[in-house]
Amino acid sequence: MKSCLEIRGLKAAIGGTEILHGLNLSVPKGEVHAIMGKNGSGKSTLAKVMAGHPDYEVTGGDVLLDGNTILGLEPDVRAREGLFLAFQYPSEIPGVTIANFMRAALNARRPEGQEIDAVEYYNELYQKMDLLKIDRSFTSRAVNDGFSGGEKKKNEILQMAMLEPKYAVLDETDSGLDIDALKIVAHGVNSLRGPKMGILVITHYQRLLDYIVPDVVHVMVDGRIVKSGPKELALEMEKKGYDWVENLVAA
Amino acid sequence: MSETNTLEKPDLKIDQDEGNFSYPEDYAFDAGTGLTEKTIDYICEAKEDPDWVREFRKKALKVFKDKPLPTHWASKDLENIHFDDFRYYLSKGAKPKRTWDEVPDDVKRTFERLGIPEKERAFLAGVEAQFDSEAAYSNIKKAVAEQGVIFVGSREGLKDHPEIFRKWFGKVIPTADNKFSALNSAVFSGGSFIYVPKGVKVKHPLQAYFRINAENFGQFERTLIIVDEGAELTYMEGCTAPKFDSVTLHSAVVELVAMKGAKLQYITVQNWSPNVFNLVTKRGLAHEESEIKWIDCNIGSRLTMKYPGVILKGRKARGEVLSIALANSGQHQDTGAKMIHAADETTSNIISKSISIGSGRATYRGLVHIPRHLKGCKNNTECDALLINTESRTDTYPAIVTRGEGNSVQHEASVSKVSAEQIFYMQQRGLTEGQAMSLSVNGFVNDLVRQFPMEYSVELKRLIDLEMEGSVG
Asked: Confidence band (pLDDT; 50, 70, 90) for A88?
């Protein structure tokens, strides 16, 4: 059985309105895939449904992590199974430092009474921060509290580095970033990509894909993947616009 | 039903299980059910009280019976307390033991389960462990006693040290202060009497632990602490009770006196079971350049009413109340602080943080009084409330009266919510819903808890974790 994040005929609704209409997608471990789509095409819904957001109702299909369904599991169980979502709008947690938050997250993955050793933890943390070129003082700040857009995204990538998920979904990680912040985040993702992780990058713009070069590009229209292809597809999309794909679908 | 003290709020999903155990009753002294002059006589004889105490108690009983319940401003739930159904004095003997080996087995096991002897060895200068009406164990480390520090129960205090005891007893909180201070004055038993001589700085905390074991029982400890000129003390109290279907009453009176330049820190970490009415009066008298600090953590109970206060009597005296209240479903924490400025250049600081979970309700009541003739007084009040889910309720009643020029007050209040998005975000990192809420709550109180001594901040964090895990359905 091939290791992959697989979505089969997924249908999902919010408040009784169906947003995903039978979506198929497979991201093998070790690959980076990108989903491109206009606002309102259902990209963020897909990310939240995979992570188990309570507002969404799954009305059909399945999501499998290495062959096992994760639908019906609590969000925290899915996370511990190896699914990570980098949020488009990460929440603030006043009074809780990034260092303590990530330590709690790591401990949640370990049996009770076998909490991570403090020295071991900080060694690991500093190593990852150096890799991502993040200043040491960063993790003593409260999680996302008063952060700029760039800092929030940097924090998401740092957590992704520390938690070492099997599959990471990056939801519009480029939104609200200037070019410098974008480069830092892209550098982070590129340092983490490798044979142990499958990455799904969700974006509105082709721009991010100049820095995180995907193995496969998927185009999403109205809750479905309508076209998939190599990285060049992103450039073609950029040139011809979404209308081009929509016309393909209509035809 | 109304004739008994049976709980009318049956569903309390809260887990105060840690303290939820009790041993069969076996008491040498039992004043029976109800409260009359005969009850007082029984208590006086069991305790071998001097005549002045008997008289004090009987006067107080009259005040108690005459005073109405304060339901014109406080919770109507007070009407569910049926004073005639309680037992007011239960003990295995009035004299505490000096070693744990001498303590009766069931009582010793109780305190061992609560970790008291262990903490005593680890970091305390002395411990008093009260079981229902009397201290079962009381001991102070030799080195501390040799400095002249007195640490005994109220019974020994009034008998063996009348010259200090009588001078201050009932002076900071008069009998008629409120209905419950009158009740305590009538039937008080147990609690601590502490005297720290001039210039003595007690390095490690003294701790009292109040344990209720019996059903339909009222615990009325009376604590009086005097810290003489330039002396310093940290005192800590912990409280638990088993969960009964019937109501338990805890009504303490705590009086603190800080003489010139003294420093006194009083820390409460209570974790009452949800059938306890906790109606406590706490006040300190701060002389010139002294400092009284209340650190008050209220977890559990059905209704807590407690407003620790400081009377700032001497120039440059300083008062502080740092409080945390956690109201889980079915609970009402009605807490706050009182700062009475009565001299120039006195300063006070109140920081209150409350957390309401489910149908839990937190109320802040503050009173800051700075009269016209004073100069250079300052007060800072901050009240922050955190609501977890939409049923929760929080109210703030800050009464700040400042007159005169050259006095300054500052008041800030905030209400925030733990949102579903925040919990989802944390769950996506692998934390369970309970762990996520617990972390949010700990984050909310974090800046305050950082000011607590290390041992207590660890204890508080643990209690919050327990409480939050129990609150997730």
From this structure: very high
Contact A101 B445 (CB under 8 A): no
Would you tell me how many other CB atoms lie within 10 Å of the CB of residue A15? 8
Enumerate the domain spans of chain A: 4-91+166-250
Residue A241 phi, psi dihedral angles, 5° rounding: 85, 165
Q: Find the CB nearest B422 among A76, A91, A104.
A: A91
What is the per-residue pLDDT across B9-64, written as a single tens digit (0 to 9) for each? 333 333 445 677 777 777 888 998 999 999 999 999 999 999 999 999 999 999 99
pLDDT band (50, 70, 90) for residue B325: very high
Nearest residue to B467 via CA among B443, B435, B425: B435
* pLDDT at residue number A251: 61
- What pLDDT sits at residue B3? 37
Backbone angles phi, psi at A174, to 5 degrees: -90, -10
Inter-residue contact A165 to A84 (CB < 8 Å):
yes
Structure tokens, A155? 């924090």
Between CA B217 and CA B246 the distance in angstroms is 9
Question: Cα–Cα distances in Å, from B317 out to A81, B161, B170, B256?
Answer: 58, 27, 21, 14
Respond yes or no on whether ipTM tops 0.85: yes
Q: Of the candidates B342, B203, B334, B364, which has an alpha carbon nearest to the alpha carbon of residue B284?
A: B342
Degrees to nearest 5, angle at CA A197 with A193 and A198: 95
Test mutation, A44, A49, A76, chain B, max B CBs within 10 A: A76
Chain A residues with CB-CB distance to B432 below 8 A? 74, 76, 108
- Could you please state the CATH topology (level 3) that the domain comprising A4-91+166-250 is classified under: Rossmann fold (3.40.50)
pLDDT above 70 covers a percentage of chain A that reads 99
Interface size between A and B, measured as CB pairs under 8 A: 79
Of B425, B427, B443, the CB nearest to A94: B443
